Amino acid sequence: MEKYHCKAAYILEASVPSEEKAMAMADFFKVFGDTTRIKILSLLLESELCVHDIATLLNMEQSAISHQLRVLRQNKLVKVRKEGKSSHYTILDNHVYKIITQGLDHLSE
User: Fold this and answer.
1) Strands 78-83 vs 49-50: parallel, antiparallel or unpaired
2) C-alpha distances in angstroms, 56 versus 30, 31, 40, 51, 62?
3) How far is the C-alpha of 52 from the C-alpha of 44, rounded, in Å?
4) Domain 7-108 maps to which CATH number in 3.40.30.10, 3.60.10.10, 1.10.10.10, 3.40.50.980?
5) How high is the pLDDT of residue 66?
6) Is the pLDDT reported for residue 1 higher than 80?
7) Residue 28's CB: how many other CB atoms inside 10 A?
8) Per-residue pLDDT tens for 26-80?
9) Which one, of 105, 64, 70, lies nearest residue 89 by Cα?
């Protein structure tokens, strides 16, 4: 008796991510499950911003924004540049830019 019904399944067997990689991917996408983080990332698509300006634009406390930025930084989605006492944030790289813009594009269809 054959293991799979379809021949394509034999080829696809190697494509199944390991449990470790699947968990890491699920955790990565959980970061996008918060509306404040999505709003912050959407702002940072357009420009580098300091914590104060992000908080003002989103009508939130700076401490709440700092907490969300810490989560985004720990998950390698944003980077910080210190300028005196201010911290300025930008999208980490083009991969993050593509994830956010493709998500927004998908919702616009």
Assistant:
1) unpaired
2) 25, 22, 11, 9, 8
3) 13
4) 1.10.10.10
5) 96
6) no
7) 13
8) 999 999 999 999 999 999 999 999 999 999 999 999 999 999 999 999 999 999 9
9) 70
List, as one string, the DSSP characters of 16-40: SPPHHHHHHHHHHHHGGG-HHHHHH
Q: CA 27 to CA 51: how far, in whole Å? A: 25
- Predicted local distance difference test score (pLDDT) of residue 98: 95
| The predicted structure's pLDDT at residue 3 | 87
Q: Where are the domains of the chain?
A: 7-108
Which residue type, as a one-letter code, is found at position 57?
L
